[in-house]
């Protein structure tokens, strides 16, 4: 953080004076569903999984809130499938009940799920608001979310519109090599956080829960490797993913790892999370430099200093939350639990440092700025720490 000697001098004087935000396809999840609301519960636990949705009320659950810079809780797993039946426990193709080490001890084939870790897979039309994103870990476990929205679909109790959603987790079994650039991955399990077909009102929005669009109707996924000849891939896969092929990719070949739902003819493109966030980090540094330059100007009012310093903190905090989300979708459960505990400790240290920075100016116009600057510096430092953790994956 640059020095603020001149700034502080002008601010002290001010303090003294004070003291006296492709391919078009309609999402299949946009169907009517019985409205179910929850009483005084968070969205994660509002509905009993596996039960019939028959209640209609006019009460609404409080909208979920997110504390900026705070560690988010890990999503709970639910054992309901789209049909409401209990899903099979994660297992590999060789049998149930295997440990993670056993699941990873597959014959050498030149490919493993570790090659897919740290990537975001996206199924989308390339136009419109809907998409399904998923993340595959080195052990073959995966998680993701389908979402869509229709703010014009309103009704009694939900004037804010309708959100279509499916949060899911699952397990892939042992991949089978088909040819030099194609593998078949069996879907051993697929679990939904909320039962498909149910809905509930949260705040003034109706949340309608569906299946995992793009993953339904199949028991396996085809995995296409980079450099696969496009001429050998299904036209349907290419039509879903052509929007995401970089302009500088080798002509006639696939430039990323792809997923293909053969029965449903839906395709997922992918990109490297760490590379994408590195670009975001470079952009954030440029934006931060501009904000710091503004903070060194002596022509700003104290309110403008406070607002600019808040922008600086928000810039780093937003990037931190994006990196944290990437880590949640990349790390295994044990590693994420350890990192979560570390993050909680860092949050406590940050809050203490922010309070200490603002204490000498308590109640005065300088307090917000001094607290924002301390929070921005610590958050920027934490961004680099977590970026290193992500790069290790």
Task: Explain what the structure shows.
- By secondary structure, the protein is an alpha+beta fold.
- The protein has 2 domains: 43-264, no CATH class; 274-391, Substrate Binding Domain Of Dnak, Chain:A, Domain 2, CATH 1.20.1270.
- It is built from 7 helices and 11 strands.
Beta content = 15-25%
Low-confidence stretches: 1-26, 28-108
Distance between the termini: 29 Å
Number of domains in the coordinates? 2
What spatial order of strands do you see in the largest sheet? 1-2-3-4-6-9-10-11
In short:
This protein has an 8-stranded antiparallel barrel with strand order 1-2-3-4-6-9-10-11. Helix content is 33%, strand content 18%.
SSE inventory with pairings:
Layout lengths: L4 H15 L80 H5 L14 E5 L7 E6 L4 E10 L11 E11 L3 E4 L2 E11 L6 E4 L2 E5 L10 E5 L10 H7 L16 E4 L4 E7 H23 L6 H27 L4 H26 L8 H25 L2
Helix pairs in contact: 4-5, 5-7, 6-7
What labels would you give this structure?
393 residues; alpha+beta; Substrate Binding Domain Of Dnak, Chain:A, Domain 2; eight-stranded antiparallel beta barrel; 7 helices; disordered N terminus
């Amino acid at each position: 953080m640059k020095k603020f000697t001149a700034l502080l001098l002008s601010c002290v004087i001010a303090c003294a004076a004070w003291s006296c935000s492709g391919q078009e396809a309609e999402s299949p999840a946009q169907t009517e569903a019985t409205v179910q609301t929850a009483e005084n519960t968070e969205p994660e636990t509002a509905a009993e999984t596996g039960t019939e949705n028959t209640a209609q009320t006019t009460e609404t659950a409080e909208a979920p809130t997110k504390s900026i810079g705070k560690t988010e809780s890990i999503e709970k797993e639910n054992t309901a499938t789209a049909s409401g039946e209990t899903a099979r426990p994660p297992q590999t193709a060789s049998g149930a009940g295997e440990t993670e080490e056993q699941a990873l001890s597959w014959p050498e084939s030149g490919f493993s799920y570790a090659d897919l870790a740290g990537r975001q897979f996206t199924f989308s039309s390339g136009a419109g608001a809907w998409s399904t994103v998923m993340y595959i870990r080195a052990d073959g476990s995966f998680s993701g979310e389908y979402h869509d929205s229709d703010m014009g679909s309103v009704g009694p109790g939900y004037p804010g519109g309708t959100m279509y959603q499916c949060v899911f987790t699952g397990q892939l079994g042992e991949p089978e090599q088909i040819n030099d650039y194609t593998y078949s991955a069996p879907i051993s399990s697929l679990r939904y956080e909320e039962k498909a077909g149910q809905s509930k009102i949260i705040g003034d929005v109706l949340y309608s829960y569906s299946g995992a669009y793009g993953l339904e109707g199949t028991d396996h996924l085809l995995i296409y490797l980079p450099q696969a000849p496009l001429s050998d891939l299904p036209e349907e896969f290419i039509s879903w993913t052509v929007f995401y092929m970089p302009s500088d990719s080798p002509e006639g070949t696939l430039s990323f790892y792809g997923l293909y739902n053969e029965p449903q003819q839906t395709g997922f493109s992918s990109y490297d999370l760490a590379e994408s966030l590195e670009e975001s980090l470079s952009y954030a540094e440029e934006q931060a430099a501009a904000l710091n330059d503004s903070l060194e100007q002596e022509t700003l009012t104290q309110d403008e200093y406070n607002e600019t310093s808040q922008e600086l903190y928000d810039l780093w905090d937003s990037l931190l939350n994006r990196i944290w989300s990437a880590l949640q979708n990349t790390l295994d459960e044990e590693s994420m639990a350890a990192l979560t505990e570390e993050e909680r400790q860092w949050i406590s240290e940050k809050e203490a440092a922010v309070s200490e920075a603002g204490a000498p100016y308590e109640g005065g116009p300088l307090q917000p700025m001094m607290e924002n600057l301390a929070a921005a510096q610590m958050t920027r430092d934490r961004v680099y720490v977590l970026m290193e953790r992500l790069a290790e994956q």
